[in-house]
């Protein structure tokens, strides 16, 4: 009896989720049922259709689909309602057997619902097994399956290209990385793959370094030799860089070959127009102009990844050259804090690029904590923007927001009582500029001096 009640409760819950989804369809069916020549048949057909939709929703929920997405997903993919539920469950089971995590699985099925076709998945499951790829990652399988379904590919090309890469000396881990980043390699023929590898050998990549090189930059195989890679090397030469230098830099950093044509020229133009202190400029060019230009490219890519357009990214770097010296991880941490914690739009960086140049813990977090405390307490009668938070000097910020509220001193840290303020000079240097104090002699010292001087007079 308890089992029956539980099942009814579960069915009622799923029905409540799907009621707004199918209420329109249900009302339409009832309106036409009275006009139908066989209303009983129509009623049972509607009930069967409704129950199948509930079963389909229940199945998808068991495999991680959020209930908020069920309406859009089921309504946009009518073929699921005509599919065999047992085959759909087997298809989802195959995806789980391929060790694709829940979130990527939901993303794959949402982006490409056709991947749930049982015959397609069964065929590709055998293809993955026959390839004997020991380091096949879930991300690789997800990307390959999505590509294969969209272009109706068979696993034969996948298996043959895996064998080609292995025959060229690449490990299973590198092959998996290539398929993650560039799954379209399964659509290339053997000659195209060998042509790209031969190009890497021509520019001086040692055979024993090919595996490391391709694992670091697997996307290089997507670029054509004649229309992309060779013109890129010609551009480097036109900029005044010798072949030996270019080869050395490419071996050191394979991602150089992923640069767009004209990208390095734009980065070098930015470096020529920098207006900053000489020590900063010296540190930027400490490893040469080529390396400095590539570092600019990496920072521009980082800023663009977080929402800026390229023109804005170059503008931020020009205004705040110290970014070229900072690690990418530090820049991303500051941007994440700006967007998700401080709730500012990433476009504010164009107006206040200094935000990315200051210390994260001592200045950004400390000042933000003070302002948030005062805002929650009601101690601010105006809105403090990003410029007001970053621009003032430490002493000015202290006088404005910390000094009137002693409880904020520990949050701010810089001028609190338990923090020692560092002097501009070494501790004892001031003594060199202070006249020595004349000590007062005792009566006994005066008598001794008189007794010493009397014989000399």
From TrEMBL:
Q: Does the keyword Transcription regulation apply?
A: yes
Q: Does the keyword Transit peptide apply?
A: yes
Q: Which residues form a coiled coil?
A: none
**Family matches, as InterPro entries:** MTERF, MTERF_sf
Gene Ontology molecular function: nucleic acid binding
A Gene Ontology biological process term? DNA-templated transcription termination
The name this protein goes by in its record: mTERF domain-containing protein 1, mitochondrial
Q: Which family does it belong to?
A: Belongs to the mTERF family.
Keyword list (alphabetical) reads: Transcription, Transcription regulation, Transcription termination, Transit peptide
Q: Which organism is it from?
A: Morella rubra
């Amino acid at each position: 009896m308890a089992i029956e009640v539980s099942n009814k409760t579960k069915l009622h819950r799923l029905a409540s989720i799907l009621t707004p989804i199918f209420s329109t369809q249900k009302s339409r069916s009832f309106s036409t049922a009275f006009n139908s020549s066989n209303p009983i048949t129509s009623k049972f057909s509607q009930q069967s259709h409704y129950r199948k939709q509930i079963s389909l929703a229940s199945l998808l929920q068991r495999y991680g689909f959020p209930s908020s997405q069920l309406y859009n997903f089921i309504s946009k993919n009518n073929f699921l309602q005509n599919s065999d539920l047992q085959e759909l469950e087997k298809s989802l089971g195959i995806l789980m057997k391929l060790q694709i995590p829940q979130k990527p699985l939901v993303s794959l099925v949402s982006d490409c619902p056709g991947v749930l076709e049982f015959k397609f998945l069964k065929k590709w499951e055998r293809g993955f097994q026959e390839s004997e790829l020991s380091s096949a990652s879930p991300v690789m399988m997800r990307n390959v399956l999505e590509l294969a379904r969209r272009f109706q590919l068979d696993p034969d090309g996948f298996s043959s290209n895996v064998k080609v890469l292995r025959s060229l000396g690449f490990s299973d881990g590198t092959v998996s990385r290539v398929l993650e980043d560039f799954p379209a390699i399964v659509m290339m023929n053997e000659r195209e793959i060998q042509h790209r590898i031969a190009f890497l050998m021509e520019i001086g990549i040692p055979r024993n370094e090919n595996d490391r090189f391709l694992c670091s930059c697997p996307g290089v195989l997507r670029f054509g030799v004649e229309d992309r890679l060779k013109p890129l090397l010609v551009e480097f030469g036109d900029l005044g860089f010798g072949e030996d230098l270019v080869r050395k830099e490419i071996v050191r950093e394979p991602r150089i070959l992923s640069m767009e044509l004209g990208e390095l020229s734009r980065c070098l133009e930015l470096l020529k127009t920098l207006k900053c202190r000489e020590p900063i400029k010296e540190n930027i060019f400490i490893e040469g102009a080529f390396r400095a230009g590539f570092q600019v490219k990496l920072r521009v890519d980082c800023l663009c990844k977080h929402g800026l357009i390229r023109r804005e990214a170059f503008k931020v770097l020009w205004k705040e050259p110290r970014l070229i010296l900072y690690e990418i991880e530090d820049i991303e941490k500051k941007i994440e804090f700006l967007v998700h914690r401080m709730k500012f739009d990433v476009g504010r960086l164009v107006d206040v690029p200094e935000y990315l140049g200051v210390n994260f813990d001592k200045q950004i977090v400390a000042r933000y904590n003070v302002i948030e405390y005062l805002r929650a307490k009601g101690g601010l009668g105006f809105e403090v923007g990003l410029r007001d938070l970053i621009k003032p000097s430490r002493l000015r910020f202290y006088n404005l927001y910390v000094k009137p509220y002693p409880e904020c001193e520990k949050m701010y840290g810089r001028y609190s009582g338990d923090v020692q303020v560092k002097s501009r000079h070494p501790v004892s240097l001031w003594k060199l500029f202070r006249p020595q104090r004349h000590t007062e002699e005792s009566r006994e010292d005066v008598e001794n001096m008189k007794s010493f001087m009397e014989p000399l007079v």
